[in-house]
Design brief:
- This protein has a single domain, classed as Gcn5-related N-acetyltransferase (GNAT) (Aminopeptidase, 3-Layer(aba) Sandwich), CATH 3.40.630.
- It has four helices and seven strands; from the N terminus they run E-H-H-E-E-E-H-E-H-E-E.
- The chain has 158 residues and is α+β, with helices and mostly antiparallel strands.
- A seven-stranded mixed beta sheet has the order 1-2-3-4-5-7-6, with helices on both faces.
């Protein structure tokens, strides 16, 4: 059974940091990891509440995946970043559970939309984002931009 929890304590933040490093190590060219070292060292950083979240998927007591939600580049928009699932937990709904939890956190924080960037070679991630309703916003080389407009929210977004 998978549980999604906030990485809100040192041990959970360390677990998320380890997952992010595994994610970065698996990237063929490191293109999407500009300033990654500083990001990992400074966790939770931009993912800190109230405007962000750093979420961890646990399979029993073991870290199975993570995702970050941070304020976006556009007012009222969050960015979902660093969705990663360990190889042994892929295909079991962990990515979907993490994405659903990140979108719920975005709604709760008052965001009107969520943007993300993914890579051309991440076919399973792209398929998940499309099932969730994300629409393509264009590409820059192998980086694909996507965006999901959330249900109408009347509160002011961070």
């Amino acid at each position: 059974m998978i549980r999604i929890v906030e990485a809100d304590a040192p041990a959970r933040i360390d677990a998320a940091r380890s997952l992010l490093r595994a994610y970065a190590a698996g990237e063929p060219d490191g293109l999407c990891f500009a300033d990654f070292g500083a990001e990992a060292a400074g966790l939770p950083g931009a993912y800190a509440p109230p405007a962000g979240r750093l979420l961890l998927a646990l399979a029993g007591d073991a870290a199975a995946g993570c995702v970050g939600l941070a304020p976006g580049r556009v007012a009222g928009e969050a960015e979902m970043r660093r969705l990663y699932v360990v190889p042994g937990e892929r295909g079991k709904g962990v990515g979907r559970a993490l994405a659903d939890a990140a979108l719920a956190a975005a709604r709760a924080a008052g965001y009107r939309a969520v943007a993300l960037e993914t890579r051309e070679h991440m076919a399973a991630a792209r398929a998940l984002y499309q099932r969730l309703g994300f629409a393509d916003r264009g590409r820059d080389g192998t980086v694909l931009a996507m965006r999901l407009v959330l249900a109408a929210i009347t509160e002011t977004a961070p």
